[in-house]
Specification:
about 120 residues; mainly beta; seven-stranded mixed beta sheet; four-stranded antiparallel beta sheet; 11 strands; globular
């Protein structure tokens, strides 16, 4: 099993920045990549960004490219999401998730952290 705990959410004005953290524990040697997702009220959950455990490959949703940066500290088993130039449309609950080898999709999820961007 893999356990994930998000932190760093909060209320920020448009144009501001936040850094989210995803602390992972458990069977990390089984994990291929960690992703960030978000879900706004009344909307489906959507992909935000992902990074491989090796750190050699990262991918972003078009809506956040150039504004968000995903990174990881392997020694701390923590993945970060630096969010700059935030917009009200970024308001959502942000979740991190783990994609393990042998699985077909992200199979372990954190409880989420709320990000609210005011105009």
């Amino acid at each position: 099993q893999v356990q994930l705990v998000e932190s760093g959410g909060g209320l920020v004005q448009a144009g501001g920045s936040l850094r989210l953290s995803c602390a992972a524990s458990g069977r990390m040697f089984d994990v291929y990549k960690i992703g960030w997702f978000r879900q706004a009220p009344g909307k489906d959950r959507e992909f935000v960004a992902t990074i491989t455990q090796s750190g050699d490959n990262a991918d972003y949703a078009d809506s956040v490219k150039g504004r968000f940066t995903i990174s990881r500290d392997r020694a701390k088993s923590t993945v970060y999401l630096q969010m700059n130039s935030l917009k009200p449309g970024d308001t959502a609950i942000y979740f991190c998730a783990a994609f393990s080898y042998g699985q077909e999709n992200y199979s372990h999820w954190g409880q989420g952290t709320q990000v609210t961007v005011s105009s």
